[in-house]
Specification:
This protein has 391 residues and is of the alpha/beta class. The protein contains 10 helices and 13 strands. Strand 10 and strand 11 form a beta hairpin. The radius of gyration is 21 Å and the shape is globular. The protein starts with a helix and ends with a helix. The N terminus is likely disordered. The protein binds calcium ion. Calcium ion binds next to loops.
C-alpha cells in the first residue's frame, strides 16, 4: 500500500466516526429494556458502502462473492425494499445522520470535497484496523461505531494497484488509470468484505456480537461498473437502480437469523431506529421523517403504509420520484429529453407510473392508464416539496 502517514490519518478522519453511546443521551436516560439480558444497552455498528449496487454482493445473488456479508445475512435480516434518500453520496449521508430529508439540512446535491479532505479508496484495511482497536477499547461500555467505506466508489483500484489519490491534490482522477475496472471493482468489494469480517470477528472475540446491532447498507446504487441486478438505472437516477440498495441487519437473539423483510424501508429510518435503541428521541423541533423500524427488524412486522420521496436539483440531473405501496411515480428529464423531437423544449415534467410488484424493472409506464393515481401522487410530491424545501 502506497500512502504516507498524513494520508492515512486524513482518510481515517473522513471514514470513521465513532463515540460511546451517550454522546447525545444524558446519563440515566438510556432505556435498559432495549439492551441484552444483562440490561446493558446495545452497541450499534453502522457500515456503509459507497456506490454498491443491489446486484453486486452474494447475499443478493450478485456477481461478487462476499463471504462475510453472507455471514451477516445468515445471522440476521436481509431487507429487499430498502432505499437511500438520495441517489448520490452527500444527500443520502445528510439524511442518514439527521433522520430527515436532506433538503431540510440544505444538502439536496453533492458537496464537493476540497483538496484538504482527500478520499483515499485504499483505506479499507486502515478502517478495519481502527474498528478493531475501537471495539476492543470499548468492550466494557455501550458504543456507536460508524464505518463509512469508500469502496467501490471510483477511482477503481484494487489492493495491488497504484494509489490514485494523495492528500493535497487538487484534481480528482475520475475512474482512474486501471484498465480492467471490473476486476478492480470486484477487488474493492472483496477487500471491504474482508474488513467487515474483521469487525465481526472482533465483536465475537470480545463477546459483544449478541448485543450489537450491525447494520450494513450502501449510500446509493451502483455505477455501470457494478450491478444493480434486475433493477433499472444506475447511481444518480431515480430509477430503482439509483436508490434501492442492499441492506443487512444483524443482532443475534433479537433479529431472526436468516430472515428477510420486504417492508419499504429507508436510510432515513436508521437514525430513529438506533436512537430508540439507545433510549433517545428526536429533538422536538426537529422531528424525524424516517421511522423507528425496530418492529420490522426485531419482530418481523410490516410497518404502516408510507410514502417515500426523492427530488434533486439540476447538479447532475433533475428528477423526482414518489413511492407509495406497490406504485412508483418517476419524473426523469433525461428520459424525456431522449424521447423528445430535436429542438423540442422540455417544459412540463412528464410523470411515469410503475407497478413495482408486477414490474420491478420499471419497464411499463402505466401513467396513461391510471391518471387519477398519477394526479394524487403528483399532488403528494408537491406537498412534500413545499414541506422540505425541495427543488
Ligand atoms: Ca455514493
Amino acid at each position: 500500500m502506497k500512502a504516507n502517514h498524513g494520508t492515512r490519518a486524513a482518510a481515517l478522519a473522513c471514514a470513521v466516526a465513532a463515540c460511546a453511546v451517550g454522546c447525545g443521551t444524558p446519563p440515566g436516560e438510556v432505556d435498559s429494556a432495549a439492551g441484552g439480558e444483562d440490561g446493558r444497552p446495545p452497541n450499534i455498528v453502522l457500515i456503509m458502502a459507497d456506490d454498491l449496487g443491489y446486484g453486486d454482493i452474494s447475499p443478493y445473488d450478485g456477481w461478487i462473492e462476499t463471504p462475510h456479508l453472507d455471514r451477516l445475512a445468515a445471522a440476521g435480516m436481509l431487507l429487499t425494499d430498502f432505499h437511500t434518500s438520495g441517489a448520490v453520496c452527500s444527500p443520502t449521508r445528510a439524511g442518514l445522520v439527521t433522520g430527515r430529508y436532506q433538503h431540510r439540512a440544505g444538502v439536496p446535491a453533492v458537496l464537493v470535497a476540497n483538496s484538504d479532505s482527500p478520499l483515499y479508496h485504499q483505506g479499507i484495511d486502515l478502517i478495519g484496523d481502527h474498528a478493531e482497536r475501537f471495539i476492543a477499547g470499548h468492550r466494557d461500555e455501550p458504543f456507536f461505531l460508524y464505518l463509512a467505506h469508500h469502496a467501490p466508489h471510483y477511482p477503481y483500484q484494487g489492493p495491488g494497484d497504484p494509489a490514485e489519490r494523495y492528500a493535497g491534490e487538487d484534481t480528482f482522477p475520475g475512474v482512474g488509470a486501471v484498465t480492467d475496472r471490473k476486476r478492480a471493482y470486484r477487488e474493492m468489494v472483496e477487500s471491504m468484505d474482508a474488513s467487515i469480517g474483521r469487525v465481526l470477528d472482533a465483536l465475537e472475540e470480545q463477546g459483544l456480537f449478541e448485543n450489537t446491532l450491525v447494520w450494513f447498507f450502501s449510500d446509493n446504487g451502483a455505477t455501470r461498473e457494478g450491478s444493480n441486478g434486475a433493477l433499472r438505472g444506475f447511481k444518480a437516477s431515480y430509477w430503482e437502480g439509483g436508490h434501492r440498495v442492499p441492506s443487512l441487519a444483524t443482532m443475534p437473539g433479537r433479529i431472526a437469523a436468516g430472515s428477510t423483510s420486504t417492508a419499504i424501508t429507508s436510510t432515513l429510518d436508521v437514525m430513529p431506529t438506533v436512537l430508540a435503541m439507545a433510549g433517545g428521541a428526536a429533538h422536538p423541533d426537529l422531528p424525524f421523517d424516517g421511522t423507528d423500524i425496530g418492529p420490522v427488524l426485531f419482530d418481523g412486522e410490516d410497518p404502516p403504509p408510507r410514502q417515500l420521496f426523492w427530488s434533486s436539483p439540476a447538479q447532475f440531473w433533475r428528477g423526482a420520484a414518489v413511492r407509495d405501496g406497490r406504485y412508483k411515480l418517476v419524473i426523469d428529464r433525461r428520459t424525456q429529453r431522449a424521447a423528445a423531437a430535436e429542438g423540442e423544449e422540455i417544459t412540463d415534467p412528464l410523470p411515469m407510473l410503475f407497478d413495482l410488484e408486477a414490474d420491478l424493472g420499471e419497464t411499463t409506464d402505466l401513467a396513461v392508464d391510471e391518471p387519477q393515481r398519477v394526479e394524487a401522487m403528483m399532488a403528494a410530491l408537491e406537498r412534500w416539496r413545499e414541506d422540505v424545501g425541495a427543488p
